[in-house]
Amino acid sequence: MRCFKADLHIHTCLSPCADIIMTAGNIIKKAVEQGLDIIAITDHNSARNVAAAVEIAAGSPLEVIPGMEVESAEGVHLLCFFDQLEQLITWQEEVYQSLPDMLNDEEYFGYQIITDQEDEFIAKEERLLATAVKMSSEDIVKKITSLGGLIIPSHIDRPYNSMLANLGFIPPGMEISILEISKHVSEKEIKERFPFIKEYSLISSSDSHYLTDIKPMMEFYMEEVSLSEIKLAVLGRNGRKSRIIK
Fold this sequence. Notes:
The structure is a single chain. The protein is α/β, with parallel strands linked by helices. It has eight helices and eleven strands. The chain has helices at residues 24-33, 50-57, 85-98, 106-109, 137-146, 163-166, 187-193, 227-235, and strands at 2-10, 38-41, 63-71, 77-81, 113-115, 121-124, 150-153, 178-181, 201-204, 218-222, 241-244. The strands form three sheets. A seven-stranded mixed β-sheet has the order 7-4-3-2-1-10-11, with helices on both faces. A hairpin with a 5-residue loop joins strand 3 (63-71) and strand 4. Helix 1 (24-33) crosses helix 2. It is globular.
């Protein structure tokens, strides 16, 4: 069993709200400097910078989990993780089909920049990513589960774009066992505010939009880097365990 330090919520310059220098290469370099073993790239409603991050990280001590932060029809942000890039690409196709047919307004929302394996700017995503898809939270959970991924509601303590703020509750019967809390709240605080949270396991992430935000947020004690191992660690099963770093 080994301790892996992780940050599972990082945005690149493809997310219009992220700093323009949040290229895959800069993120990988910063993560290694910070002693991270695992990161996840989770841009808004797109995965077009994940392949570059995976390739840049190859040969380094850092593992990159393919991911995305999708916004449901109710405005709920949900973290979607996959073991394989191909699974994520399949999911991206569904997301793009469900996005409204709107162009990005760079002056209002910000740039949506795609970079390559050399960390060069190669294109802009013209479609607006800072919006909701036409799928409900329940639909998204079912689709991610059917694709073999792991889904975790984002920053549930936030007063907007969170499952608790936008829905008012976590729908019963939904295949969710893990919730993300933001870096602004502790595990103790969230459980005092919402006693029912004790029924769920928690992770915390940086939700980095700037290089200075990237840092170890979790410790996972597990055999290897995979979604099944991470889930076991967060749930505290089969000798695996996890710890939120504060």
